[in-house]
Amino acid sequence: MVMLNTFAPPQADTKQQQYNVLLQQIRDIVYNEEDLVANLSNIAAILHQGMSFSWTGFYFAKEDELLLGPFQGPAAKTRIQKDEGVCGTAFTQECTVMVEDVEEYAGYISLNDYDKSEIAIPAYQRGEVMLILNINSHHFHNFTEVDKRNLQQVMHLIEEVL
Predict the structure, then answer these.
(1) 142: Cα separation from own chain's centroid
(2) Residue 94, Ramachandran bin (φ over 0: left; ψ between -120 and 50: alpha; else beta)
(3) Number of C-beta neighbours around residue 30 at 10 A
(4) Which DSSP state fits 4?
(5) Angstrom distances, CA of residue 97 to CA of 46, 58, 108
(6) What are the extents of the domains in the chain?
């Protein structure tokens, strides 16, 4: 019988402690599996369950648009154009975009009424954006500098294997 190595959400006192556990789990995945889609699928699941986000997933940069990749949560928009929504802005501006209240964000792509905040983080290959990690939350002001720093670290781990 083959056992799947599952990852339990961390039981920690602080958000940083939660991320420390998750980052170790993600390192273990990235350094022990070379298939990018398999890794992204597991990373999305670990982050989604570990931090109780409402939507967690990746978009691949394909020319002038983003194409939906592995994710956890409800169905999502399959293609996002440059400058469209939070992901498109992160793609065009080549930087992390944190939105505390999506209702106040011009051009926000609404897929449901429950999402209140969002963060999008790019990963680079040879200086070009290749991938966007996108995360939504049902809570206003959910994302902090702790999230930003740790999620950027996740993307740096992914960049090592792109």
Answers:
(1) 14
(2) left
(3) 19
(4) P
(5) 21, 14, 12
(6) 15-159
What crossing angle do the helices spanning 36-51 and 15-32 adopt, rounded to 10°? 160
- Residue 8 pLDDT greater than 90, yes or no: no
Q: Report the distance separating Cα 98 and Cα 92, nearest Å.
A: 14
Q: What is the pLDDT of residues 61-113, one digit of tens each?
A: 999 999 999 999 999 999 999 989 999 999 999 999 999 999 999 888 877 78
Count Cβ neighbours within 10 Å for each residue of 53-66 and write b for 16 or more, e otherwise: bbbbbbbbbeeebb
- Kindly compute the dihedral angle of the four CA atoms of residues 85, 90, 96, 102, in this order, to the nearest 10 degrees: -10
Are β-strands 97-99 and 55-62 bridged in parallel, bridged antiparallel, or unpaired?
unpaired
Mean pLDDT, the chain, rounded, equals 92
Residue 35 one-letter amino acid: D
Token pair, residue 141, equals 């002001």
Class of domain 15-159: alpha beta
Highest mean pLDDT among 10-14, 103-107, 144-148: 144-148
Distances (CA, A) of 89 to 108, 147, 157: 10, 19, 22
Length of the chain as a residue count: 162
d(CA 120, CA 148): 9
Tokens of 101: 């209240």
